[in-house]
Write a structure and sequence with these properties.
Blueprint: H1 3-26, H2 30-68, H3 81-85, H4 100-108
The protein binds zinc ion.
Length: 119
């Protein structure tokens, strides 16, 4: 499954849990409704996280495509997810966008076709 699929699944889970929580409120089951609302919050956060991952993946693929066709794009911000979580102290060895060689490795394991620049 892709990040989009996880995003949609988490969103659907949030809708179902919200419906269940609302039904519990009508039947005066407040404790159970509160637990369902916690589940809604977790599902919404998961959906937002998967959306961020999808957008990052699309940006990395676009960056790799541009490098493959001969452009010299600026590194992404953060340059890689490891640098983002380590505050720049560590970098992913083959996904860091500071290194153009990483783009070729990134492009090698993608489903996106790399096209040549038409000049
Ligand atoms: Zn990096």
């Amino acid at each position: 499954m892709t990040h989009r699929h996880y995003q949609y699944a988490a969103g659907a889970g949030a809708v179902l849990l919200a419906t269940a929580a609302t039904a519990c409120l009508y039947r005066d089951l407040y404790v159970i409704a509160a637990m369902f609302w916690v589940g809604v919050a977790v599902c919404l956060e998961a959906s937002a996280r998967e959306r961020r991952r999808h957008l990052r993946s699309v940006a990395e693929h676009e960056w790799a495509r541009r490098v493959a066709v001969g452009d010299n794009p600026q590194p992404l911000r953060p340059c890689c997810l490891l640098a983002g979580t380590s505050r720049g102290r560590a970098h992913h060895h083959d996904r860091c966008t500071r290194n153009p060689i990483a783009a070729l490795l990134l492009a090698a394991d993608t489903d996106y076709p790399i096209t040549r620049k038409d000049n």
